[in-house]
Design a protein that fits this description.
The protein has 101 residues and is α+β, with helices and mostly antiparallel strands. It has two helices and six strands; from the N terminus they run ββββαββα. A six-stranded antiparallel beta sheet has the order 1-2-3-4-5-6, covered by helices on one side. The longest helix has 15 residues. The radius of gyration is 13 Å and the shape is globular. It starts with a strand and ends in a 9-residue tail after the last helix.
Amino acid sequence: MASYTTVADWQDVEAGYVVDVTIRQTEDDQYPSGWDYSLHLGKVGGETVLRYDNAHERTKGHECHTGNDVEHIEFPGMLALYDRFKREVEEMSPVSWNWPE
């Protein structure tokens, strides 16, 4: 069985929005990038505003979800993608999030 190391796993809810971040480093063959991640901004109640994930990396690659749209993206590396996500979340929500280090 492949090993997983959790790098980040947290959720925060503010002003009707939720940020949910899961980042795990792995040797699992399902994740050729070496990462299993979901970076999610949504509205309380379930509407997705923005999500980056690789839930099906082997078959679908890396994806960016905005509303009901899905775009396949090039994976720039975990740190670069996380920084991009933080910038976009700050632009897309009225909340000034307290990002864990």
